[in-house]
Amino acid sequence: MAANTENKDATMQYLADFSDPANYQAFVDAVGFIPTQPTATLNTGIGAEVAPYLANFRVGYEQYWIAPKGAGQFANPFASYFKPFGTYDDPKELADKVQADLQAGLDAVK
């Protein structure tokens, strides 16, 4: 929730409702996501398939990444800008672009 939201009460109510174990389980069952709440179960076909691998599951770094304010579009760890998904085929050129966009955000917070 944004600190300066004009809808704090509605946002808090949404989070409370969504976090209710029954509501969250209904969401997980409807969309097929792997649940993150400990009370939820994997009732879907994919859930049954991945359940054996989740005993030591940890969220990956890219799920926690928040780019600094002012960073450019290339300053993220989860996009692929290499061909065929993107337009780059030169690693050095892309690394320089990523570093420049990240540095712009880091410099903005100083």
Secondary-structure element order, N to C: HHHHH
Question: Major sheet, described briefly?
Answer: none
Q: Give the domain tally.
A: 2
Helix content class: 40-55%
**Which structural class fits the helix and strand makeup?**
mainly alpha
Low-confidence stretches: none
Strand content: under 5%
Oligomer: single chain
In total, how many beta strands?
0
**What is the alpha-carbon Rg in Å?**
19 Å
Mean model confidence by pLDDT: 86
Instruction: Report the principal-axis shape.
Output: flat
Count of separate DSSP helical elements: 5
Distance between the termini: 24 Å
Walk me through what this model shows.
This protein is an all-alpha fold. The protein has 2 domains: 8-57, no CATH class; 62-108. It is built from 5 helices and no strands. The chain has helices at residues 8-19, 21-31, 45-50, 61-64, 91-108. The radius of gyration is 19 Å and the shape is flat. The two termini are 24 Å apart. The model has no long low-confidence stretch (mean pLDDT 86).
Topology:
Blueprint: H1 8-19, H2 21-31, H3 45-50, H4 61-64, H5 91-108
